[in-house]
Specification:
341 residues; alpha+beta; 55% helix; single chain; 17 helices; 4-stranded mixed sheet
Length: 341
């Protein structure tokens, strides 16, 4: 079986208590069955605590009860007591894997990291990071696939075209969005047997024209962190003018590779999922909302703060991923309200 991943996937290492955020707070930790058996039989004070904090949530998953929005095993030194007392192998699958994501397409696998992890995000948004793809051959025998291989070939070929667009240094942020949109239109036309036309074009003025609508949409979603809520509420009061847009456009042009890497991530992670739905509109909608949200919120901070640094640019992208991309409820809501051409 062929397995593909980028150089940053291989190089990633958790930076533990040096992380500016943490996956040990605000998110529920789902305890898999094998880990549950280990925890149920663990000895000492750590075993007693493990048994006391495990509960079943409304979805039927076994989770740790959070303590003030923190994992109860995330100690005052911002390190994991399970890791310290029982060893790395005793971490549940959720904690072992994050931010690693495995995309299994039966005949082949692809691996990526999550943008919700600050260290993973830092690696993925580096210039040229998405061009360093490694393909290996694993001894594992590929499973029979239950999808139409011709459709997968169509999707795979279209995705390669998108990667070529994103890899072209002459293409700016909005050039890329336009060309990805047109490729998606072509693919959807082939899938549906209907000739669709690309009727939309993307530019900074259009993003700013949709500013209030986009902020309102984000505020309608489930919000996990106070930081994200405060940012959106502050941004809601801002009104851009043409000078702001021009200054920000000139500034962000130096970092358009971050946006192109952001688009690459969403294409790499979600485009081939269309094999199940025969609908590439959702992937494009994911790209569009992520890029639009990053752009307008970075614009707001750029104007509000009189400038923007790399930590602020990345924080917005990471928070969006944590709050929106990783929320099942929010994605379901967006499917109803936003995910369409």
């Amino acid at each position: 079986m062929k397995i593909a991943y980028h150089e940053f996937y291989r190089d990633f290492k958790c930076i533990a208590n040096k992380c500016p955020d943490s996956c040990c707070k605000e998110w529920d930790v789902v305890v898999d069955d094998d880990s549950y058996l280990k925890y149920k039989n663990a000895e000492g004070k750590i075993g007693e605590k493990l048994r006391n904090v495990m509960t079943i949530d409304s979805d039927g998953d076994r989770i740790f009860t959070l303590d003030n929005s923190r994992c109860p095993f995330w100690n005052k030194n911002m390190l994991c007591d399970i890791y310290i007392n029982l060893g790395e192998n005793s971490l549940c699958e959720t904690c072992k894997r994050f931010p690693r994501i495995i995309l299994d397409y039966s005949k082949f696998q692809e691996k990526i990291l999550s943008l919700a992890c600050p260290e993973a995000l830092r690696l993925m948004l580096k210039k040229g990071a998405m061009q360093k793809l490694i393909v290996t051959q694993d001894e594992k025998i590929a499973e029979p696939c239950d999808y139409d291989t011709e459709v997968m070939d169509l999707l795979y070929s279209a995705r390669e075209k998108i990667f070529s667009v994103l890899g072209n240094d002459n293409n700016g942020i909005f050039d890329c969005l336009d060309m990805i949109y047109k490729i998606c239109i072509e693919v959807q036309s082939a899938l549906d047997g209907v000739e669709y036309e690309a009727e939309t074009e993307f530019d900074e003025n259009g993003f700013v024209a949709d500013y209030k609508q986009t902020i309102d949409l984000l505020l309608q979603l489930d919000i996990m962190t106070d930081e994200w809520k405060a940012l959106l509420e502050r941004a809601e009061k801002y009104k851009a003018d043409s000078k702001d847009i021009l200054r920000f456009s000139e500034y962000i042009g130096e970092y358009d590779y971050e946006y192109k890497n952001l688009m690459y991530y969403y294409v790499y992670r979600y485009f081939l999922n269309s094999i199940d739905t025969y609908d590439v509109t959702e992937c494009f909608s994911l790209i569009l909302l992520a890029v639009k949200s990053a752009y307008i919120l970075q614009l707001f901070l750029f104007v509000n703060n009189g400038g923007l640094n790399i930590e602020q640019r990345h924080r917005i992208i990471g928070l969006y991923s944590k709050e929106v991309e990783h929320s099942y409820e929010n994605i379901e809501y967006l499917r109803e309200k936003f995910f369409n051409f």
